[in-house]
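sanity check this:
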Amino acid sequence: MSWNSTDENSTSRLGKGSGSDNRALFLKQFSGEVLTAFEEKNIAMPLHRVRTIKNGKSAQFPSIGVTTAAYHTVGQVIYGGSVPASEITVTVDDLLVSSAFVPKIDEAMNHYDVRSIYSSEMGNALANAADRNIFSTIYEAATGSGNGDQQAQWVNADFAGLSGASSGATGAAGKIDIKTVASEDVDNHTPNGQEVVDGIIKALEIFDKNDVTGEKYCVLNPETYYILLGSDTTAINRDVGGNGSVATGQVPTVGGVKIFMSNHLPIAAQSTPTPSGTNEANRATAYASRDGDLRGLIFTKDAAATVKLLDLGVESEYQIERQGTLMVAKYAMGHNVLRNKSAIAFVS
């Protein structure tokens, strides 16, 4: 082969695959990096119900109530009882976008690759937004006014003496103050690891008393998670069956509940704002709930539902008129409370 060959096929193009597109591999690598970053960063998506739709603006989830049983009287006609039913609607929000523009001149002069960094950050941004919205929805499932579900919402009496001194014996619907579980209405101290464990066990008791079934998950803020790793907790004491490890910094389960840590619970101080949009489908206000005392959430998969219209997707295009490459990562999905009494909030 001549060193000065004019045949393009004889040159080595880094982005060229088996076809004729010299940029084919670049977009695939970008897509993979965004998807990988999203999956590594996102916590909430696999912990609740998710449905994908091909078109439309919403999806309906049926809610079937309970029926009764009665002894039959000989000769009496059986007409059949009624079973209450309703539906919960989950509406798709605006298209959520994370984008970056890379000028060709800047990329030429730069001494390190920025595209992989940008793609990772875009994936993280979308994952963080999804987590914030989903956890806000789960918080509403615990403390909100409920929805059209046939299962009644929590009431204050369900948490009598467990929601802190400010609530007294009345309790606050859907909330357990982890400092008052062992000693009711006493919350004038910093919670310790054992009290976090006791709070989780108490929540499980309340779930069982109300026939809330299904696998349970617990997501704690960083402060509470690392309190749980303290030396005063049975979560890491193997003598009493704990399976946590200070060495690895992990608490896999407490009372059979998988433990996770997230910095995106709906606490008053958030590092980034709730995404907002302009059209009528936007429900940013539905994710605006904040609780400065929140330390964690314990819930089942039925606490919230997500409807995906457009799953995570990426696009990359060189724009001649701007002399640079526009990279866009996006998804369109919405979230709503699904099943009442399927979540409890931990506060202190």
